[in-house]
Amino acid sequence: MLDGGVHYATNGDFRLAYRVLGDGDNTVVWIPGWISNVDMFDEPESPFTGFIEHIAEHTRLVMWDKRGTGLSDPVTHVPPLDERMDDLHAVMNAAGAKRPALFGISEGGPMSILFAATYPERVQSLILYGTLPRFTPELPDYPWGLKPHRLTEYEDEIVNHWGEGALAELFFGPIAEVPGFLDLYGRIQRASASPRMALMLWQAVAQIDVRQVLSTVLTPTLVLARRGDEVATPEAAAEFASAMPNAKFCELPPGPHGLLDEALASAVLEFVCGTAHDETSERVLSTVLFTDIVSSTELLSAHGDTRWRHELDVHDRLVDRLLAKFGGRRAKHTGDGVFALFDGPTKAARCGLELVPALASKGMHVRVGVHIGECERRGDEWSGTAVHVGARIGALARADEVLASRTVRDLSVGCSLRFESLGAHRLKGFTDETEVFRVIKPAGVPF
């Protein structure tokens, strides 16, 4: 089994540890769960060694540590999902994984789903194991996940027993009772995350929610679950698989959440190596941002055509500079504003919050709307429900205000922004109500 050792990919100032095992024709990128350490995955006593060797024997397996875990750079907060997607991009590029299969396990599942929806051209196929789009119930429509009354118990166990095998019973069931297992799992924990980071990551898990993007994932997907998994039951996995257009569900033999056995390896390999996948369509998940200059007609009348054209040139240069800063791209002008696309909702919201004061200092007050959803590209034009929703949300905003949809809020978990609910609104042309949030940057918090 070919192993080049530990390498580092770079995303801005952050360095992300990764390893490549095997040299098969098909590349699999493992999206780790809660914690990981790439140095320990294939140690002889590791509970994951047999699984990894089986996968690496037939593929080119890329494994990596998320920032804040394992051998990757530490952080002081849990990065939102779009920042994690940037990290995954960096690892894929560094490892030469142009269009791999993504294997998302446990907490790595939601980010895998979001990545496949946002960058379908970079994902050949998607395998999801022991994961959910949301890890806590939201009654009455979503009864799945970890019970809220147990979350405090789990947090206490992390605080008091991190590095001693905390949550071993939840993840490994009866395996946790095997003599010596708690010592082994405790050593893995100590090498994978600090106690504070482990707690922050655990608390962030309870807030993740990507249910609203499931229908936009067109990538061929295999969803796997097993009875005995207290995190993701087969019933829950089957339900969310049914919401994905090209997903199929397969139930594995019974076992605990953390059991990575030969049955799982065989299912992954059959899907990755034995199935021909179609090319992806032009539909992708994107974050849309709409801006509009408030009272532009009055400003034109007061300033005159020549001066107004000059001010619009200043507006365009400033907007384009901030779009570039946050990784956005202008799709088109919308009269007195812009329609822009971003790869992640947090970037778009932050861009909007910087645009407001920057343009106000030039005498132009704007309203901004942000939404995320499936968009369809037709040549140089973009269409789709998400585009119309984003425009309608922007139209609701007042001068110098950034508004966003609930989906943007849900997918921005872990960022420093605040989302203040303005209640449900019936947007023009839509029958269902949409919850709208005002986006606020806390004072003194840098981007």
Automatic annotation (TrEMBL):
Keywords: Hydrolase. This is Adenylate/guanylate cyclase domain-containing protein. GO terms for molecular function: adenylate cyclase activity; hydrolase activity. InterPro entries: A/G_cyclase, AB_hydrolase, AB_hydrolase_1, AB_hydrolase_fold, Nucleotide_cyclase. GO terms for biological process: cyclic nucleotide biosynthetic process; intracellular signal transduction. Residues 287-394 form the Guanylate cyclase domain. SMART domains: CYCc (SM00044). PROSITE patterns: GUANYLATE_CYCLASE_2.
